[in-house]
């Protein structure tokens, strides 16, 4: 899977939004991509209202902010997405994505359908890739074999998957749909879409 004898010059540094049902293989594909191209991609630094843990640096691990600061930023429309988990806010700001671009890297966002809709409302000029399962049964099988789901969470993920697949079926919602059946084939397709043709 590694392309050690080839180099790639990205044809575009536009942010890439990767979405698709849970268990469809997004993390698996991204892990391969980052391994093969270690200096090409960057992660946006999220905001949080939780306290920094030992060793965490502001602006590196997270942008640590107060609740009023976070709420103000949400009101000002500065976030692509935000959510509250166990009493703390977390969010990805539009600026955090632009900072990655300013650092000369391609920002990859692995987000859900709501996140996709939010990014489309910004001026980030992102490219949208949808990772689809070969079939609903294959998706269920992958989630089962990953061993991370309870019966309830599995059902919830499959219900959400139906909505995501319906959204992806509408032409124009994504720039590229990749069916992750054979992993190596799907990976090559993703790598080409993001980085262009490899130069020998
Ligand atoms: N092409 C493939 N064929 C078979 N199994 C696969 C394939 N791609 C990924 N998997 C397996 O499917 C499971 C789900 O993959 P992964 O965790 O990458 O999904 P995900 O889309 O990132 O899910 P989530 O959104 O819940 O984080 C993993 O166990 C992974 O090893």
Automatic annotation (TrEMBL):
* Annotated ranges, domain Guanylate kinase-like: 13-195
Q: Which UniProt keywords apply?
A: ATP-binding, Hydrolase, Kinase, Nucleotide-binding, Transferase
Iron as UniProt keyword = no
UniProt superkingdom: Eukaryota
Gene Ontology cellular component list: cytosol
Instruction: Specify the protein name.
Output: Guanylate kinase
Question: To which protein family does this belong?
Answer: Belongs to the guanylate kinase family.
Organism encoding this protein: Dimargaris cristalligena
Q: Which InterPro entries match?
A: GK/Ca_channel_bsu, Guanylate_kin-like_dom, Guanylate_kinase, Guanylate_kinase_CS, P-loop_NTPase
Which parts of the sequence are annotated with region: Disordered?
1-23
Q: Where is the composition biased (Low complexity)?
A: 1-12
Q: Which PROSITE patterns match?
A: GUANYLATE_KINASE_1 (PS00856), GUANYLATE_KINASE_2 (PS50052)
Q: What is its EC number?
A: 2.7.4.8
Q: Name one GO molecular function term.
A: ATP binding
């Amino acid at each position: 899977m590694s392309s050690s004898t080839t180099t790639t010059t990205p044809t575009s540094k536009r942010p890439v939004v990767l979405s698709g049902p849970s268990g469809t293989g997004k993390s698996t594909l991204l892990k391969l991509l980052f391994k093969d191209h270690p200096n090409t991609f960057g992660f946006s630094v999220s905001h949080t209202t939780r306290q920094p843990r030992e060793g965490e640096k502001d602006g590196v691990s997270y942008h640590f902010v107060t609740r009023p600061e976070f709420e103000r930023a949400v009101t000002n429309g500065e976030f692509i997405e935000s959510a509250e988990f166990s009493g703390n806010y977390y969010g990805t700001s539009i600026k955090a994505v632009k900072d990655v671009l300013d650092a000369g890297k391609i920002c990859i966002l692995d987000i859900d359908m709501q996140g996709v809709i939010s990014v489309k409302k910004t001026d980030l000029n992102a490219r949208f890739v949808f990772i689809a399962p070969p079939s609903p049964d294959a998706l269920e099988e992958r989630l089962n074999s990953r061993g991370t789901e309870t019966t309830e969470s599995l059902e919830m993920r499959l219900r959400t998957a139906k909505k995501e697949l319906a959204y992806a079926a509408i032409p124009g919602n994504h720039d590229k749909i990749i069916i992750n059946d054979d992993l190596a084939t799907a990976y090559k397709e993703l790598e080409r879409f993001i980085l262009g043709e490899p130069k020998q």
